[in-house]
Each structure stands twice: as structure tokens, then as C-alpha cells.
Design a protein that fits this description.
Blueprint: E1 2-6, E2 15-19, E3 25-29, H1 35-41, E4 47-52, H2 64-71, E5 74-78, H3 93-97, E6 108-110, E7 115-118, E8 121-127, E9 136-140, E10 143-147, H4 166-177, E11 184-187, E12 193-194, H5 195-199
Parallel strand pairs: 3-4, 4-5, 5-6, 10-11
Antiparallel strand pairs: 1-2, 2-3, 7-8, 8-9, 9-10, 11-12
């Protein structure tokens, strides 16, 4: 499994193209970057089989509609955050910009432990509520994609937006910090890190 980060998305959200061992199949996590930018930097372009959302905030799905149109890939999000795709209040467009912008609806609703397979690789869903009710992480071979739950340098997502909960977020951070394996950590904003480095902020 190979990971390529794209920092060109709006509002400093990071998109990740995750490719299987053959380089022929991939998923895109949090589509905030344009299809054209990825296509210019990834040659040959793999077949995108799924568009994965770590949560339902606008900055992590800015280009979701375009990616859906270009690839036909399934839009995958937890069932708790699926309503945000078609609700401008829940996706925070109304709160931040006063607009009613929405996005294509989900094709697949994800639950704890679900597996998203692509080629010879796969990612497992780990629910991490708190930043939003349906925030999740995607756990793969030596990599974890944590969205806005756990970020580098001890940072974590806001809990004062619709459906947020400080108590749930803290529990999710402790859950991630308790994972025993070593993982490269790919957050929704900021630099890449490792779970070993970040868990030091939560477990002494």
C-alpha cells in the first residue's frame, strides 16, 4: 500500500491517494483537491474505486462531486455523518459562509469494523466520534488516516460544531492512543506524524 498526500485542497485540508501494491487500484480519502491536480502528479492514474470521508465537514469534500463524476467511485461515509452530505447546516457551509451548498449523497454507509477493499489492499473503519458524530479513522497496513480527530503535535479537532462532543472526542483520542501496533499517522490537516509520537500526548 502506498500513500500520496495532496495539500492543495482548500482550507488546508489534506487529501490522500492510497494505492494498492500493484499501483492499479486506489481510494481517495477526503477529496478536497481537484481531479486534474492528482492526474498531473500521478502517472499512470490508478482506478479509483472509493471516495472515503473521515467525516462530513465541507472542507473534506470540496471536490467530492467532481470526483464522483470523473470516476463513478462509491462515496463512503459513516451512517452517522451521511446526513451532512446533503445538509448545509451539518456540513457547516451555512454556519461558515451562509450558503446552502450540499454534496452528492453516500453510496455506502460505513460501520465499525467495515473493510474497504481495493485491489490487494484494504482499510478498516474505526469510529472516532467527537469532532462530528460519525468521525472515523481508516486503518491499513502500517498506516492510519485520522481525519480531524487526532492530528500532529498533539492537535485535535474542534468539538463545538454541530454534533460535536468534548467527552466523545477525548474517548476517541484515548482509543486511538491505545492501539498497540505502530502506524504512520495521516491527519486531516497539518503534517504527517506517527501514532507512537502522538500517543505521548494522551498516555503517560
Amino acid at each position: 500500500m502506498k500513500v500520496k498526500a495532496f495539500y492543495g485542497g482548500g482550507f488546508a485540508a489534506v487529501s490522500y491517494l492510497v494505492t494498492d501494491g500493484t499501483g492499479e487500484h486506489a481510494v481517495l480519502i477526503d477529496p478536497a483537491v481537484s481531479y486534474e491536480e492528482v492526474m498531473m502528479r500521478v502517472v499512470p492514474m490508478p482506478k479509483i474505486t472509493a471516495l472515503l470521508l473521515t467525516h462530513g465537514h465541507f472542507d473534506h469534500m470540496l471536490t467530492l462531486a467532481a470526483w464522483k463524476e470523473k470516476t463513478g467511485a462509491d462515496i463512503c461515509v459513516t451512517r452517522e455523518d451521511a446526513p451532512a452530505l446533503t445538509d448545509a447546516y451539518l456540513n457547516c457551509n451555512r454556519m461558515f459562509f451562509g450558503t446552502d451548498e450540499i454534496y452528492p449523497p453516500a453510496d455506502r454507509l460505513l460501520d465499525e469494523g467495515d473493510v474497504v477493499s481495493f485491489g490487494d489492499a484494504s482499510l478498516t473503519v474505526v469510529k472516532t466520534p467527537g469532532h462530528t458524530p460519525g468521525s472515523c479513522a481508516f486503518l491499513g497496513d502500517g498506516a492510519i488516516f485520522t481525519g480531524d480527530t487526532m492530528m500532529s503535535d498533539g492537535a485535535y479537532g474542534r468539538y463545538d460544531l454541530p454534533g460535536g462532543s468534548a467527552e466523545a472526542l477525548y474517548a476517541s483520542l484515548l482509543r486511538l492512543a491505545s492501539l498497540k501496533e505502530e502506524y504512520d499517522l495521516y491527519p486531516g490537516h497539518g503534517r504527517e506524524s506517527t501514532l507512537k509520537e502522538e500517543k505521548n500526548y494522551y498516555i503517560r
